[in-house]
Amino acid sequence: MRLSVVAVALLLLPLVAVLASAEQFDFFYLVQQWPGSFCDTQQGCCFPDTGKPAADFGIHGLWPNYAKCRSAGERELVGEMGLVDMGLRRKKCWPEYCNDGNPLSLWEIKDLVKQLDQSWPTLSCKSGKSMEFWSYEWRKHGTCSDLDQHGYFAAALALKARYNLTAILADAGIVPSDDDTYFLSSISDAIAEGTGFKANLECNRDASGETQLFQVYQCVDRSGKRLIDCPLPMQGKCRDRVKLPPF
Ligand SMILES: *[C@@H]1O[C@H](CO)[C@@H](O)[C@H](O)[C@H]1NC(C)=O
Q1: Which of 60, 80, 132, 193 is catalytic?
Q2: Ligand 1, residues 166, 168, 171: which to mutate, most atoms within 8 A of Cβ?
Q3: 193 classed as catalytic
Q4: pTM
Q5: Does the beta carbon of 55 lie inside 6 Å of ligand 1?
Q6: What backbone torsions phi and psi does residue 43 show, to the nearest 5 degrees?
Q7: What own/partner pairs with CB < 8 Å and gap ≥ 24 does 13-19 have?
Q8: Centre of ligand 1 from the C-alpha of residue 44, in Å
Q9: How far away, in angstroms, is 170 Cα from ligand 1 center?
Q10: 60 an active-site residue?
Q11: DSSP conformational letter for 73
Q12: 150: closest CA among 123, 180, 116, 99?
């Protein structure tokens, strides 16, 4: 009896995979990281084999997101098949890994690689190869968008190029410093004014436990082309005053 339930579940798995790849989402987060804050932690960082990145925000990813978290149980088909016990019971706030049969091909994004090296460099110590970072982001997030490989990376690059966060912050007097701290509200205000849209902010801690601005989450419509005001607040672990460490 138990066996046959498992067998039916296995037979239907491809169907679940198809449903997952057609998954709807509501908006994107364009996530950019400040390299000084990535590196200035207990873990540290490594530069990619293309050399030390510029002292500029770098893309982390373009992430499809839901406007409202869903509990996996709402998907009745999955529930009936007992697959909830395979770890799907948790809340889902975004879709991920929507199509493992579509790995990133360097060929598809060849004309973007130079720009990607500059704007989307890896700082992880795992491999030093930014292509591995891009492949991971494509597999986890990009496959859940409606964009093809070239469209996905081109969309993120175009948005980053259009709104230079480093310059927007500098215009408001918010520049990297070992000593100064900045009001979180002045950072939010500068980004809202400089881009025309409200973003979310995430902080991390440096090696001595001080709070620093780590990532900016700009919200983007489903086409991947236009910024929107972020529809959701975020618990970004920031304090009222934060640092922006030099890189
Ligand atoms: C963004 O602005 C900063 C500060 O003005 C500048 O150094 C940097 O080159 C700009 N980045 C790009 C990609 O233009």
Answers
A1: 60
A2: 166
A3: no
A4: 0.86
A5: no
A6: -70, -35
A7: 16/77, 16/78, 16/81, 16/83, 19/75, 19/77
A8: 24
A9: 10
A10: yes
A11: G
A12: 116
Please give the Cα distance from 64 to 142 (Å, whole number).
8
For residue range 194-228, list pLDDT tens digits in order: 999 999 999 999 999 999 999 999 999 999 999 99
pLDDT of the chain, 247 residues: tens digit per residue: 455 555 555 555 554 554 444 568 999 999 999 999 999 998 999 999 999 999 999 999 999 999 998 886 655 344 333 344 444 557 899 999 999 999 999 999 999 999 999 999 999 999 899 999 999 999 999 999 999 999 999 999 999 999 999 999 999 999 999 999 999 999 999 999 999 999 999 999 999 999 999 999 999 999 999 999 999 988 899 999 999 999 9
> Residue 114 carries which side chain, given as an amino acid letter?
K
pLDDT digits (tens, 9 = 90+) for 12-30: 555 455 444 456 899 999 9
The correct answer on CATH 3.90.730.10 for the domain covering 2-242 is: yes
The CB-side HSE value for 80 (13 A sphere, CA atoms) comes to: 6
Instruction: Ligand 1 pocket test: pick from 164, 165, 169, 171 the residue with the most ligand atoms within 8 Å of its Cβ.
Output: 164
Go through 37-65 and write b for each residue having 16 or more CB atoms within 10 A of its CB, e for each that does not: bbbbeeeebeebebeebeebbbbbbbbbb
Whats the size of the chain, residue-wise? Answer: 247
